[in-house]
Amino acid sequence: xxxxxxxxxxxxxxxxxxxxxxxxxxxxxxxxxxxxxxxxxxxxxxxxxxxxxxxxxxxxxxxxxxxxxxxxxxxxxxxxxxxxxxxxxxxxxxxxxxxxxxxxxxxxxxxxxxxxxxxxxxxxxxxxxxxxxxxxxxxxxxxxxxxxxxxxxxxxxxxxxxxxxxxxxxxxxxxxxxxxxxxxxxxx
Length: 188
Fold this sequence. Notes:
about 190 residues; alpha+beta; five-stranded mixed β-sheet; two-stranded antiparallel sheet
């Protein structure tokens, strides 16, 4: 695997550019992720601005393949993102508590940017990833429909919804499992 170490101490003032191809092994090497396949190009531009301060710009473009939450088939997610962060050599402690500034110990000669690149790509993946309507695996969709509670559908968030006019008037409870709770509420 390519080295993601940026030699901070020996870098000349100015700009240096590093390019990497990120495959699925890159994302799953540290720990298992949801990335099944990857074809992402990462460009890291490092600018040494002062003796103790560097600007990093991480640009990632390509695709990652993840599983659809609904049908479990492959889902291709497009990655097109830029993350910029400052790196300051200061003190003896590592501090990544701020979004725009990373503080690393003065004694460090190199900075491993792999975790920054990895997080930059993984943070583009939405919490819920599903195919657009009608593109899920038909067999799995049929199984889901067969095993879903009667009257339950993807648009239903809970057993009762507000009326069309925006009022809080409840409509008929569609899932019988919620009926006992509705009766408790009605009695209060």
